[in-house]
Design goal:
- This protein has about 475 residues and is α+β, with helices and mostly antiparallel strands.
- The strands form 4 sheets. The protein has a 4-stranded mixed sheet with strand order 4-3-6-7, with no helix packed on it. Strands 8-9-5-10 form a 4-stranded antiparallel sheet, with helices on both faces. It has a two-stranded antiparallel ribbon with strand order 1-2.
- The protein starts with 6 loop residues before the first strand and ends with a helix.
């Protein structure tokens, strides 16, 4: 039964501990507790289930949910939207305008602002378009996602892993490896063309309406789907797609592609999907080609999405990559060549010899990049590769340190200070070789040894890989 509440929201900028909080004052205690619980206790099916979601806006605007959304957006940081309001400025704005905002949202009169479009390079070339909503709209979308996510989680396929709580890329890779170990060594690698740009709004809204009975919420979501894009100061209307970069997009993408999951399950296929990256595992090339043709027709004719036929393929699992890895015929994981090259490109940018910053800062910048990369790829069999990468990174650093010395005498004095004999230091310092060749000479290995790099805290990939897998 729909509850009627009148809620006045106030932002208490700092509590006694100095932390920012969003604190509402409600006439009913149901606002802070009972309403979200009831709204999320989805027990029925069909119309009964839909009836229980008639007042989701009450759960979304509940003070604990808004506060959690605010904290999450603040933690994610991110740039300002088209209104140039920073996340840190939101608290002051909300203290004055929060009550008006909540009232508009409850009445369905709130109008989202446009999103700022930015382009970032894709790993495989080209540009990815991101839509950056304003801070206010990010918080509202995050609040919506927090309420809808547990409702849809019970509906989603067990073989969908992207953008879902308690699920990860590692789990998706493990499931794919299990299928390969069962003899399904061929993969149908489906690539959806510009997925976030071509989602059909009407189909998505219909899918939402079969579960959500709150018309005010449905109207708000449609407004977010259609919110304009600002390019060069001009806002243009969006007619299809979802604004990639908003907190609500991951959930909406899973709702759209859940229809694909259900079709694959109905046909009895063994598959793994992570966001719009879907792999179906089969036993032969011929079976894979039949699946590819059939599913392409389903995706384009039923889901109204586009299959990138140039990038989609049927092949043995070790001839393609999935989530940056390659699954070998025996089911073991290796790191895809493109993933290694992208990692090396990041290292090259950090160790670029003309940056003109302190050597210690270069090492400090390398550490989080190396640690994060290994955290993701530590389940692959790659110990020999990691030893090569460690050696290559140390050589890049020796090269950078050589460039810092600039003059012959300065280099000779540096080598001597690091324990290299005088006559050997002069040989290298006066050599006409380039920096890269000099960095591989014994004198530089003695001056900047592996032990020295360990002492200054350079992250060791191969050593930490061993720790991960012991």
């Amino acid at each position: 039964m729909k509850q009627q509440q009148e809620i006045t929201y106030q932002l208490d900028l700092f509590n006694q501990t100095g932390q920012e909080v969003i604190r509402p004052f409600a006439q009913s205690e149901a606002v802070s507790g009972a309403l979200p619980t009831k709204a999320l206790q989805i027990k029925g099916a069909g119309e009964q289930e839909r009836a229980l979601t008639h007042d989701l806006m009450g759960a979304i605007l509940c003070h604990s949910n808004i506060r959690q959304a605010y904290r999450q957006v603040k933690q994610n940081k991110g740039v300002a939207g088209i209104d140039q309001t920073d996340v840190g400025e939101f608290s002051g704005w909300y203290a004055e305008k929060g009550e008006i905002l909540i009232s508009k949202l409850q009445q369905g009169t709130y109008q989202p602002q446009g999103v700022k479009q930015v382009e970032i390079p894709k790993p495989n070339g080209g540009k990815r378009k991101l839509g950056i909503p304003t801070v206010t709209d990010r918080i509202i979308q995050q609040a919506i996602a927090q309420v809808l996510s547990p409702i849809y989680e019970r509906k989603f396929s067990d073989r969908s892993y992207g953008f879902r709580p308690n699920r990860s890329a590692h789990q998706a890779l493990k499931k794919g490896s299990e299928y390969v170990e069962q003899g399904r060594i061929y993969v149908v690698d489906m690539d959806l063309k510009t997925f976030f740009d071509v989602v059909n709004h009407d189909r998505l809204m219909y899918r939402l309406s079969t579960t959500i009975g709150d018309k005010t919420l449905l109207g708000l979501i449609r407004k977010y789907l259609q919110s304009g894009i600002m390019i060069d100061g001009v806002v243009s209307q969006r007619t299809e797609g979802t604004p990639q970069g908003s907190p609500l997009s991951p959930l909406l993408s899973n709702i759209v592609l859940d229809e694909l999951d259900k079709e694959l399950e109905r046909r009895g296929h063994k598959f793994v999907r992570y966001a719009d990256d879907c792999n179906i595992y089969v036993r032969s090339q011929e079976a894979g080609e039949r699946v590819m043709e059939s599913l392409s027709n389903f995706i384009e004719n039923k889901l109204k999405l586009l299959v990138n036929r140039e990038k989609s393929q049927v092949c043995q699992v070790n001839q393609t990559k999935f989530l940056g890895h390659t699954i070998q015929i025996d089911g073991n994981l290796s790191i895809a060549k493109k993933s290694v090259e992208r990692f090396k490109e990041k290292i090259r940018k950090i160790t670029k010899r003309n940056r003109g910053i302190k050597f210690e800062q270069i090492i400090a910048e390398l550490i989080p990049v190396m640690r994060g990369w290994l955290n993701y790829f530590h389940k692959a069999r790659c110990k020999s590769l990691l030893k090569e990468l460690d050696s290559w990174i140390r050589r890049k650093l020796r090269c950078y340190r050589l460039k810092q010395c600039k003059r012959v005498f300065t280099l000779q004095q540096f080598l001597k200070s690091r324990g290299v004999e005088t006559w050997q230091s002069w040989i290298l310092a006066s050599s006409g070789k380039g920096y890269w060749r000099k960095s591989g000479c014994p004198q530089m290995h003695q001056a900047l040894s592996i032990k020295w790099f360990d002492e200054v805290g350079l992250y060791n990939l191969s050593l930490n890989y061993t720790r991960f897998n012991n």
